[in-house]
């Protein structure tokens, strides 16, 4: 089996929760996309990153079923692991920086796949939502404190061809896919771009995502990263 690291990205204040990520640091050992896809499916993480050049930060991101040009939590986790100023993804160059307990990346909303951003009147309504039937990818959110930019969110992929089974397990796991995503940087990126303001998002069971809009259409996404093994 190829060596890989396991991280949790967008952890809560005490280091819990977050979304698991597999990172193959020596991506050069697996060159063919078909072989990378096969390994990503075997590992079963929502995303697996293959590092092609650790000094330049050149990476590829795979779900168990397809290759992604960009994804939020894989970029945050890999930036933390490699400690590089930027990542080179198929979508474009992602700026990266470490700031105390948080790792930040800078990306563009157009790099994120489409999501339905559905606002609810209260955080309690978001908490009480049942898993919707398969269909559109829904990011359900509500203000916890609008003045402070605090948001409660939950993510329902609604399909299995973008994100496969989650190694993090729990109520969100199901054969061939996940019904609820614990922490999604791409959806937070879209929401921040749409609202045009910095956000402090609590998602899933207790993950935390920080965001901040930047000039010229860029958005920063930040979170805590923990090395599992």
From TrEMBL:
Pfam families: PhzC-PhzF
UniProt xrefs under InterPro entries: Phenazine_PhzF-like
Name of protein: PhzF family phenazine biosynthesis protein
UniProt organism field: Streptomyces tropicalis
Phylogenetic lineage: Bacteria, Bacillati, Actinomycetota, Actinomycetes, Kitasatosporales
């Amino acid at each position: 089996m190829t060596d890989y690291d396991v991280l949790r990205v967008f952890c809560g204040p005490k280091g819990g929760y977050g979304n698991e990520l597999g990172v193959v640091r020596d991506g050069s050992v697996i060159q063919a996309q078909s072989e990378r896809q096969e390994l990503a499916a075997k590992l079963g993480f929502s995303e697996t990153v293959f590092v092609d050049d650790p000094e330049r930060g050149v990476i590829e991101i795979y779900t168990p079923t397809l290759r992604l040009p960009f994804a939020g939590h894989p970029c945050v986790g890999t930036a933390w692991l490699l400690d590089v100023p930027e990542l080179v993804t198929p979508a474009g160059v992602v700026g990266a920086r470490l700031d105390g307990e948080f790792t930040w990346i800078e990306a563009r909303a157009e790099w994120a796949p489409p999501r339905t951003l559905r606002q609810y009147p209260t955080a309690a309504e978001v908490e009480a939502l049942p898993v919707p039937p398969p269909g559109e990818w829904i990011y359900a959110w509500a203000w916890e404190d609008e003045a402070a930019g605090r948001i409660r969110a939950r993510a329902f992929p609604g399909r299995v061809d973008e994100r496969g089974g989650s190694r993090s397990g729990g109520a969100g796991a199901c054969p061939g896919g996940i019904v609820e995503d614990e922490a999604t940087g791409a959806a937070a990126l879209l929401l921040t771009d749409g609202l045009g303001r910095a956000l402090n998002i609590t998602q899933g069971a207790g993950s935390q995502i920080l965001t901040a809009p930047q000039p010229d259409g860029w958005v920063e996404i930040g979170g805590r990263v923990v090395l599992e093994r």
